[in-house]
């Protein structure tokens, strides 16, 4: 008797959960949207608000499966999800030229990288020394604008390393500001573990990649 | 109906309380349990060949090979080897001949539940000639040929025909569409740049989607499979969240707030985009209402919050926060309320992905300084490690049927894309080209 009751209960919960899911999901989503006002947000999007246009991504029912048929008629198979051909354009070449110009300018300035410990964004004593020299150059070149890049080694997730890289870049920027460099001359960007300077799976490579890099901005 | 609703509310409350208690207890035991339901019996299925009815020699064999791999990966069927059961097959046509009848009897006696066979034809004389494929299905339980399919298309869609046929089989026996026609978006190194690509779920037919010459990271699908959202550094110095339409290549910037704008994730209904942004200081989670364009801030604390992943009903988010020191998984309502910590094992847990069935959350866990895949139940009660050994595993993403994960790993040296069953069995490598493939994202089923 107990068992029967229990089985019924489980079935009920399961079926109700299924029914509930579609209905409830919608409700909670709507109330979530209503509860927050659109204060300060341009409703139509646009560049000022930092929000671009958004297409309808509602799921189209169906899915194209028509089921097995005792007397099947012929189905024409297209190429599946249509994929546009990518236009190779000159982007890669242009980017490479700009990166080379940036690297040349940074090398000419003699700017040094700052290296970090595993999982850490604290500036070490060695890092402080490198940054004092970098700071001198920046102060004596008042027209130079710099980009502070935060980098990580390959260990850890791509996503968390982007956050870690930003912490490293900001630690470098903050220290330079402490040294008297105007904050408006320093922009910050994290490349996480996506632009490594070496790719070996060894500590000797990892320590080169855990770095804050100062790049002199060229043009623009 | 009213009564059912009342009972459901009551049961829901009990379940919720049970969940909350579990989280408070926190000592998530390191139990190793079956991920897939233990009472799920795979359906035995035999393939009696795809006959070559004219055309190149490889035709029937290739279709059969794709069918077999799809059937195995479905995890719905148990692919049986007919010759080893003493069953020999011949040309069966549509299964109405006397030879077929004898074969069906044999198949039923050996306990094979489903028999599949077919024929493929290609008119070689014409360039770009059509391929015609037909497949039939015998069900020994009902002792009848339950039906078949006929497909036509160019030689370039031969694999798709097989994928489609297996999805029909899975649909027939489970009511779910199958995953054989799903796609995987990922990031591949091109020179010194990282660009977006899309490939079939089995690693075939990789296509490049972006050519910026710098970084494009962490693509995620829209629920209708027509778009990807991702982090783009178009000018190298700023990070935005972009959107691209696969069919047209049309692309635009969706979020450009300044600072770090990463880990975009669309709600299952497409009405909200959750993402991390540092435009107000440190990395926090935000939610864009895609209809009104209103942005709501979900987290407020001085630590890094990132990597939101939606529960399948859209009501909750799992995300990463380092508010306790190292990164850990946390749960909250999708409006930012009711935040609670989910993971307590180890000092590094990140990159969560909520299973489309809702019952597991996959993530990257650090053990012995290696980054491996783990799964945990949303109530924190059960946890297990799926991969072991050296190498950095990253970016787990669920198949829409919840039976597989795709992820990147450096286990073979360079970073490549792998598929693994949700219970940690059967790792299959999907990419072999290139120097660095990462951030795979499995498309929804069509």
Topology:
The complex is a heterodimer of chains A (220) and B (446).
Chain A: H1 2-35, E1 74-76, H2 91-109, E2 114-115, H3 125-140, E3 146-151, H4 158-178, E4 186-192, H5 203-209, E5 211-216
Parallel strand pairs in A: 3-4
Antiparallel strand pairs in A: 2-5, 3-5
Chain B: H1 2-25, E1 43-52, H2 58-74, E2 77-80, H3 98-109, E3 114-122, E4 131-139, E5 144-153, H4 158-174, E6 183-190, E7 193-200, E8 207-208, E9 215-221, E10 227-233, E11 240-245, E12 251-255, E13 261-266, E14 272-277, E15 284-289, E16 295-297, E17 305-310, E18 316-321, E19 328-333, E20 340-341, E21 349-354, E22 361-367, E23 370-376, E24 383-385, E25 393-398, E26 404-409, E27 416-421, E28 428-429, E29 437-442
Parallel strand pairs in B: 1-2, 1-3
Antiparallel strand pairs in B: 3-4, 4-5, 6-7, 6-29, 7-8, 9-10, 10-11, 11-12, 13-14, 14-15, 15-16, 17-18, 18-19, 19-20, 21-22, 22-23, 23-24, 25-26, 26-27, 27-28
Helix pairs in contact in B: 2-4
Percentage of residues in DSSP E strands of chain B: 35-45%
Question: Superfamily at the CATH H level of the largest domain in chain B?
Answer: TolB, C-terminal domain
Q: What is the averaged pLDDT score of chain B?
A: 89
Number of helices, where a helix is a run of at least 4 consecutive DSSP H or I residues of chain A = 5
Look at the helices and sheets of chain B and give the structural class. Answer: alpha+beta
Largest sheet of chain A: 4 strands, mixed
**What global shape of chain B is seen?**
elongated
Q: What oligomeric state is this?
A: heterodimer
The total number of structural domains of chain B is 2
CATH level 3 topology of the largest domain in chain B: Neuraminidase
Strand order in space, largest sheet of chain B: 2-1-3-4-5
CATH topology of the domain at 116-216 in chain A: 60s Ribosomal Protein L30, Chain: A
CATH hierarchy: architecture of the largest domain in chain B: 6 Propeller
- Provide the helix percentage of chain A: 40-55%
